[in-house]
Each structure stands twice: as C-alpha cells, then as structure tokens.
Amino acid sequence: MQVDLTMLEQTQPYVLKQLQTIFDHQKVGHAYIFEGTRGSLVEEMMFYFTELLLCEHPNGHVPCETCRSCVRLQSGNHLNFHEVFPEGQFIKVDAIERLLDELSKKGVEEGRKIYVIHDAERLNVKSANKLLKYLEEPDGTVTAIFLTNNINAIIPTIRSRCQQIKFQPASKKLLVKQLQEHEVTYSSASTLSMITANLDEALRLSNDDAFAHARKTVLKLVEAVSKNVHESLLVVHEEWLPAFKEKEQMELALDLLLFAIRDIVAIKANPEAELTYPDQKQLWSTLALRSSYQHLSVQLEAVLRARQQLQSNMNRTLLMEQLMLNLQEGKSFV
C-alpha cells in the first residue's frame, strides 16, 4: 500500500500528529483501537504508523521506503507484520490461533512485531478471549492495532486494554473539490466522496465502467421501488443480480442504495441539503414529497438489515427479493 502523507495531513491532522508524537517520545503502546467511518483513512493511517514503527531509517516522520523493512512491508512479506480479517460474519478462533502461532515463532525477525485486527467488532467472545491473554502478556515488543467503525461493538475486555484513537469523518468537500480539479463531474465526485476519501481510488473509480454501471443500476432500482414491488423485482432480476455477482459488488451496491435513501431524507428536511446524487435532486424532491419520515426510516432500516444479512452469506436472490418487499412496508403519501 502506498500512503499519501499529504492526504493524511489534510484529512486526519489530529490523528497524524497524535501518532507522530507517540513515535517521537518513544511511547508506543501495546494496543490501539483505530475507530473511523468508511473513507476516513483508517487503514491508510494504520499502514503509515506501521511502516514508521518498522522502518530502519526514518527521516523524521517519513519512512525511508528503501530499507529492507520498508521494502518487505510494501511487498507484503514482512515477517513481523500480521493481519487478521473476518471470515464470513465473524473473526473465528482458528484465525486467532494462526496469528498467535506466528507471533510465538522465535528468531525470525528482530524488533517490534505488529498485528492488525480488521473489522475488530466482528471478534466473537471465543476469539476475543483467545486473544486476550496474549494482549495482556505479549511475548516481546508487540503492538496490536484494532480497526473498527464502531468501538462500542468491541467487547469491553478488549476495549479496556487499548488506547483509543478516534478518526474524524472524511472531508467530503475537500475530495469533491480535488476530483473536480481532475475533471470529474460534480455529481460523480459527490457520489465517489461517499465511497472513499482516497483521491487515487476515487479517480480510479471515476474511470471504471463497472462503477458507472453500478451507480446507474442503483438509481434505476430506486425509481422502480417508488412505483411498485413488481417493477422493483423486475429490475432486481434483470439488472441488479447480473451486475453484482460478487459479495464486494453487492456490498457497494447496497451502500449506494442506502445513500440514495439518505438523500431523500435530507432533501425532505432541507431542500438545499448536500446530496450524494445531486443530479437526481428533482426526482429526490418528488419522492420526498410522496414519502413520510416513517416510511423512509423503514427503508433505511431494511437496507441496513440486508447489509448485515449479506455478511452472513444469505442467498442473494432471496435477500434482494425480501428487501424489495421490506422497502414497500409502511408506504404512504403525505
């Protein structure tokens, strides 16, 4: 991962300064929780901090990028850096056991060991308890970094043993401005700024036909949902399911659908609200007039529930059919 330090400075100046001060004073803790919403550069900051701690010849707060440690980290082959990801809905005990086995190996690499738990809120009680003893009594110089978008969902026994690093929500306005400077339309830039806070990733997506098609398909589904369940099911089977075959594609599509409904809520409350889809303002205004806050709340909850069910590997056809029925619940005109 190539980290843009300037972007970190612009997006998360307080967190960056906090971590750099820790490094300067050589007060590196044994465990941290990085909490931030999507697009707030949590993973990028984690990688920067990791690279800074492992670099053999840092220049102030900048990793050298050329020493053996930096090269190995960039190539994904650093033996003192370990990552754990969820498998399905949870981080399983087997994954923690494999991590502890790697961390217990002697004489592989000198210096600090760092392990990162992604989506740490998905640690279940068994996997968390398995990790807890090592967290309290690490073997050697070890730093744990837990990444999460909801610190309150991490079990208290883990949470109480970590220093908490709170990330600010991503600056949407800054990214939109930067994208427009690269000739991305305001409407596309507004949507992209909800997906990522990384300029390079946003530019890549802006040139990705698959992302453009995803955006178009989601908007078509929103319009179909506003008519009746039969129209929405038709779009699901003919366009949505063929377009979003992979789990990651479905996750993105559901996020885009959630943002659309949030737009409608926002414009109902304030006709001048900033939107994820500013090119759809006229349609959103019409739907806002036709929908009650109660109905929109039901729709938001339905999409969030579908997002959770996707993580538990529910059949995607059944998931979407159920979602279309749930989106009609409580429908009323006001």
Automatic annotation (TrEMBL):
It catalyses: DNA(n) + a 2'-deoxyribonucleoside 5'-triphosphate = DNA(n+1) + diphosphate. It comes from Kurthia gibsonii. It comes from the Bacteria. This is DNA polymerase III subunit delta'. InterPro entries: DNA_pol_III_delta_C (IPR015199), DNA_Rep/Repair_Clamp_Loader (IPR050238), P-loop_NTPase (IPR027417). Its EC number is 2.7.7.7. Residues 241-328 form the DNA polymerase III delta subunit C-terminal domain. Keywords: DNA replication, DNA-directed DNA polymerase, Nucleotidyltransferase, Transferase. It is an enzyme of class 2 (transferase).
